[in-house]
Amino acid sequence: MRLILLAAPGAGKGTQAEKLSEHYGIPTISTGAILRKNIKEETELGKVAAQYINDGKLIPDDVMIQVMSDRLSHEDCKNGFILDGFPRTLAQAEALEKSTIEIDKVLMLNVADETIISRLSGRLECESCATTYHKEFRPPAEAGICDKCGGHLTVRDDDKPETVKARLETYHTQTEPLINYYKEKGLLRIAAGKEKIEDTTAEVIKALGE
Ligand code: ATP
Ligand code: MG
């Protein structure tokens, strides 16, 4: 299955992508994880990304389109993939449409803005493997330590309150139009985000109809 996940920042898209990846045995391609890794390693892409990311702005379309067309051409994407964070603008969706990559379904995960703000303002992320936690809703077994790899948990720079607000605005203006775009193509499925991760996963799998 070649799936696009759409949702506001902090809606739990990354967590669901992980679950679906296990469920279907296909990789998740997370643009945020790719960009943060490049920032950490101070690559050319990382230097460009850093200029935008902490202001809650999007990386320019031509840069993202190039990064993703490279990534999706890797062998591990042959049997399907889950896209977490791409496309995020109409220009990116149109570039994907023009490419040779076929998309089977687009899943929109619906979560209210209030829920998003409370989730983002307690979020922790593993510095090593990028698994996310929440101080209150999804705490790690041992404070500050990743359950999966033992890495150190930190608060993302772009989870600061001012940046969260900018990211939500960016989402509403630039990404939300994709909902209609994919609805018109007949690819859109909608799932309601629930309080518990497993309940959301069940909704998502039901919405995907498999
Ligand atoms: P969440 O981590 O909950 O998914 P998010 O969707 O805002 O929240 P990421 O997907 O990790 O966060 O992305 C972080 C930042 O990376 C974005 O705010 C944006 O600056 C940049 N980014 C990620 N994907 C894209 C994209 N497709 N086009 C442009 N910029 C992007
Ligand atoms: Mg993400």
Features:
binds adenosine-5'-triphosphate; three-stranded antiparallel beta sheet; alpha/beta; binds magnesium ion; 46% helix; single chain; five-stranded parallel beta sheet; Rossmann fold; 210 residues; globular
Average pLDDT: 93
- What would the principal axes of the Cα set say about the shape? globular
Strand order of the largest sheet: 2-3-1-4-8
In this entry the ligands are:
adenosine-5'-triphosphate, magnesium ion
Low-confidence stretches: none
* Helicity, as a percent range: 40-55%
Function: Catalyzes the reversible transfer of the terminal phosphate group between ATP and AMP. Plays an important role in cellular energy homeostasis and in adenine nucleotide metabolism.
Subcellular location: Cytoplasm
GO molecular function: AMP kinase activity; ATP binding; zinc ion binding
GO biological process, one term: AMP salvage
Task: List the topology elements.
Layout: E1 2-6, H1 13-24, E2 28-30, H2 31-40, H3 44-53, H4 61-72, E3 81-84, H5 90-98, E4 105-110, H6 113-120, E5 123-126, E6 132-134, E7 153-154, H7 161-175, H8 177-184, E8 188-192, H9 197-208
Parallel strand pairs: 1-3, 1-4, 2-3, 4-8
Antiparallel strand pairs: 5-6, 5-7
This protein binds adenosine-5'-triphosphate and magnesium ion.
Adenosine-5'-triphosphate binds at residues 9-10, 13-14, 31-32, 35, 52-53, 56-59, 64, 85-86, 88, 92, 158, 167.
Describe this structure in words.
The strands form two sheets. This protein has a five-stranded parallel beta sheet with strand order 2-3-1-4-8, sandwiched between helices. The protein has a three-stranded antiparallel beta sheet with strand order 6-5-7, with no helix packed on it. The protein has one domain: Rossmann fold (3-Layer(aba) Sandwich), CATH 3.40.50.300. Helix 1 crosses helix 9 and helix 4 runs parallel beside helix 5. The model has no long low-confidence stretch (mean pLDDT 93). The protein is α/β, with parallel strands linked by helices and 210 residues long. The chain starts with a strand and ends with a helix. It is built from nine helices and eight strands. The longest helix is centred in the C-terminal third of the chain and has 15 residues. Bound molecules: adenosine-5'-triphosphate and magnesium ion. The site of adenosine-5'-triphosphate has 20 residues, from helix 1, helix 2 and helix 3. Magnesium ion binds next to helix 1.
